[in-house]
Every structure is written in C-alpha cells, then in structure tokens.
Amino acid sequence: MPERREQRRRTGFEDSGRTYRLHPSPEQAERLRAWGHTCRAVWNMALEQRIYVHRQRGRTLRSGEQCRFLTQARRDLEWVADLPSQAPQQVLRHLDRAYDNFWNPDHPAEFPRFKKRTSRVAIPLPGQAVRVTKLNRHWASARIPKLGEVRFRLSRSLGGEIRNVSIRADAAGRWFIAFGVRVPAQWAPPNGKPPVGVDFGVKHSAYLSDEEAPRLMDRTLTDGEKRRLVGLERRRERQIKQAKQRNGGKYGNRLKKTLRAIAELRARQARRRLDFTHKLTTDLAKSHGLVAIEDLRVRQMTKSAKGTRDMPGTRVAQKSGLNRAVLDNTPGERRRQLAYKCPAYGSVLVLVPPAGTSQTCGACRARDAASRVSRDAFVCTSCGHTDNADHNASVVILDRVPAHRPRTAGHAVHSTQRRPLVGRPSPAPRAGACEPLTFSARALPRGQQEIIRNPRSG
C-alpha cells in the first residue's frame, strides 16, 4: 500500500491487473503446458545452482549472471530451447525478487522454495513480447512468441500499457492470460457515506454493524454436487491403490478422468465463492465511507492442532473442520479486495485489533468471557445488553476505530497486504539470511540429472 501511494504521487500512474479467459487450440494448450513445466524446471535448477554456489563460495548469484548459463543451456537442451527466450529470463527475475523479499527484514517472505510438479502451471513473459489485437467487442487475440495468435475473451478493456504477461492454467484445465498494465491513477474524493464495522465469521459470512440481518453466502456446492464429490474422492482413492498394486504407481486414463472431474467441481466451488466475495466487498466499499475490519492473522488461526509425535494434539478433527470453515469464507481475500476497492470508491479501510471483540459488550464496553453465553447469543454480565454475538462484535469493531483517523479517501490506517508486490532489498542481509536451512538441505525433486533428461518428470 505505501509503495502504490508513492507511485501514484510520483508518476500519476499505477500498476493494475487484468485477467481474461484464454481459449487455445488443443495443440497450443499442449505446448503451453509443456512450457509451464519447463519454466518450473528452470526455476528449480536456478535455485539449486544459487544454493550450491553459496555453499561452496559464499556468494549469491543473480539473474544477470545466470542468464549466461541459460544461453548455454538453450544450446545444449532442446526442451529449454523450445521455450521463448524471454520466459526463462522472466523466471530468473522472479527468483531475484523472491531473494530480495527474503532479505528484506520488513517483508514476511520465507526462503524461496522448489516448485513441485503439481504446482500451478504458469509462463511469464514481458509486455513487449506479446502483441494484443482486438477482434470485436467480445474477443481479442494475443500473439505469443513461437505459438502464434491465441484468442481470449475480452471481458473488459485493457485500459493501459502492457508491462508484463502471465499465462496459467487452473486445476480444471482452463487457461487464463493475465496482463499487468499501467493505468492512470484514480483519485476518488471521500464519498461522505456512514462508517460500518464488519465481522467476518464462520456461520455468518459477514455481519454489519448497521444491519440487523447477516450477509450469508449461498452454498458453494449443492447437495447433489457434494454427494458426487464424495463418490469421486472415494473412487480416486480406490483407483490410486489399484494403480500402485498393478501399474507401478502409473496413473491410467480412468484415474486421470476422475481427477479431472474432482478438479472441475472444486473450480466451480471456488468461482462461486469468489463471486460472492467480489459482490460483498464492492458493496461495502461503495455504500460506506469507512470500513472497519479485524486485523486477523489467518495463517496462525488455521494452523493444525495435530502437534508432534512426542506431544500429540487434541481434538484434531474438530480443529481441521474449523480451519476449513474459516478458509471457506476467505477472510484474507476479502481484506485484499477491500484494500484496493476502498480507494477506488472514496472510502477508507481501517484494521482494528481483534482481541476480545467477541467478549466485549457493544453498549457498555465491558469485557467478560461469560457474556458469550452461546454461539449466537451475547448477554452482557454488566449491563444486561442482549444482542446477536456476531452483530455485537461488529459494533465493537467500529467502536475501536481510532478517533484521529486520516481524512484522505483511500488511505488505510494499516497496510492490508500480507506480502508487498515487490520487496526492496536491505542494505545488508539479516543475520542468518544466507543460511537457508529449511529448504536448502534437499536437492531437486527426483534429482537434478533426471530433470535434465526429462524436464516434465521432476
């Protein structure tokens, strides 16, 4: 958030993203998938090389130096040469940014990890490598190096200069193309609408302090889809067991078909969840001049309770179910969307401390755990105030907004990005930063030599 505000002030422009549904032919889709695995192999080998050089010589390679090795690899390895020359260079730049974020003491990024075969398939390209042509009101085509023209659904205009491009596929096999564009900065004046406190819950998707009824998310899967998903997952486990017993672990066509059906159901569920989230956050930003939410730490909230072998956890299944319910309501995604939608609609996003909001009375502000008599009921032990527990929490959230808050529209009191888009390297690495003990002890999956022989297996 501070970086984006500084960029707006200095240049009058800001970076924005545009994502469209890509419709490649079967031959183009097969080649894109192969390129995605090649980019993954390039990332893994470049990371392994950096770790090896640091162990042996005590220094860190950067993308400029590794590009010389990349040129040699393109001459020696046909599967690397098949990739557009700009794509592996972008991969190395992304690895540079991952290292910079790790070295930045103000950034929560961990040491870069190796990418698994099951990771998301993505091909990064610079903006000047892709040419976009508008075909009509609803369709456009992107000219991709070594692939030709690929059509995509023009659901909205680009609206700016293309800076970078990323082509990716989801678990269901659908392809998307994302453009990073530079657009004129939009300064929305304060909308002058009333403030609101919002409590994101599990049973109730959202409870607003100025509403008597909660906002509920429709079921992301119908009863029939849930039954089908359970049946498909049981079939998957049975087919995997048979594959290990009869085919040496090799997946057959029937198992692949089952996995694809599960992925399609999960993708449908994710789209419905995202649709509700966008509608909710847009309405909050449009209809209120200030939106107050809890500064939740979702990663800590959803940690597993299984414990260790020496100290096993208790009620692991119950905690696992709670974690799924919390993540199904996507509090982190709602916070991320509010961070950029509030400035666009002239409202302010404020994060408040979450401690005790469910135990504090919204009328007399007395805090007592005994006031939370049940999941849905709140009865204050001091003044006798009665309210729905989630609605009472939303009132307390709004009450915790600082009295001297900034009056400029679009300015959040606290940064709402868990990880900034681009981290700035510190003048000196922090203590122990050059010893990536967590991930550097293991080599590439299946071994580096096997990856060089067959990049799609490692």
Automatic annotation (TrEMBL):
Location of the Probable transposase IS891/IS1136/IS1341 domain? 181-304
Does the keyword field hold Hydrolase? yes
Does the keyword Metal-binding feature in the UniProt annotation? yes
Domain Transposase putative helix-turn-helix, first and last residues per copy: 19-58
Q: For this UniProt entry, which segments traverse the membrane?
A: none
- Residue segments, region Disordered: 1-22, 409-433
UniProt feature, compositional bias: Basic and acidic residues = 1-18
Q: Which GO terms describe its molecular function?
A: endonuclease activity
Q: Which InterPro entries match?
A: Cas12f1-like_TNB, Transposase, Transposase_put_HTH
What keyword terms does UniProt attach to this protein?
DNA recombination, DNA-binding, Endonuclease, Hydrolase, Metal-binding, Nuclease, Transposition, Zinc
Q: Which residues form the Cas12f1-like TNB domain?
A: 335-397
Family as reported in the entry's similarity comment: In the C-terminal section; belongs to the transposase 35 family.
NCBIfam families xref list: guided_TnpB (NF040570)
Protein's UniProt name: RNA-guided endonuclease TnpB family protein
Q: Which organism is it from?
A: Streptomyces graminearus
